[in-house]
Fold this sequence. Notes:
Helix content is 68%, strand content 0%. By secondary structure, the protein is an all-alpha fold. Helix 3 (37-50) packs parallel to helix 10 and helix 4 (52-69) crosses helix 8 (134-144). 44% of the residues are buried.
Amino acid sequence: xxxxxxxxxxxxxxxxxxxxxxxxxxxxxxxxxxxxxxxxxxxxxxxxxxxxxxxxxxxxxxxxxxxxxxxxxxxxxxxxxxxxxxxxxxxxxxxxxxxxxxxxxxxxxxxxxxxxxxxxxxxxxxxxxxxxxxxxxxxxxxxxxxxxxxxxxxxxxxxxxxxxxxxxxxxxxxxxxxxxxxxxxxxxxxxxxxxxxxxxxxxxxxxxxxxxxxxxxxxxxxxxxxxxx
Length: 229
């Protein structure tokens, strides 16, 4: 259990370049739509309740399950599906870049935790190639390190929230204490979203993320930018 916890912490905060993405928050700050701890919290809470991160978390679950049994066809299907549902080029490129980085890191690390997978990690990650989505890589890594589904989803959602809270702290700007308070306030919603995601059937995976799509499209042509998305 202790090894699994340590692996989860390492996976959730792996150096995959997430710090360079704001997922549209930069354009929201530029437009004045997000200008305080309250408005940032509302954006993140709504994203957890209705947004694209729910879809990403559901893909993590399916990638984890497929990796456990060596189902390459399912991994390929969900990777293509995850690419198809990205609504902007920025979001798609972000997912691919972070996925490639995580996969490369996973292959290079010498883990003290026995894998237990029937299919090698190399064969699993080759399904996505250079266009392996981050959620797919996260699920494969979780399966390789024997992280339970609920813990993996919680880790994925928390790392997402922590990254965007950090982006908001820099952009609005907010103090570090406000950023930490924001993450504490989001804990209940993160836990609720994780439980909902774990119960989703394939046909029920959906999101209402038009706000994210519009913010991301606006960011593509924003005059000055600190973040890549």
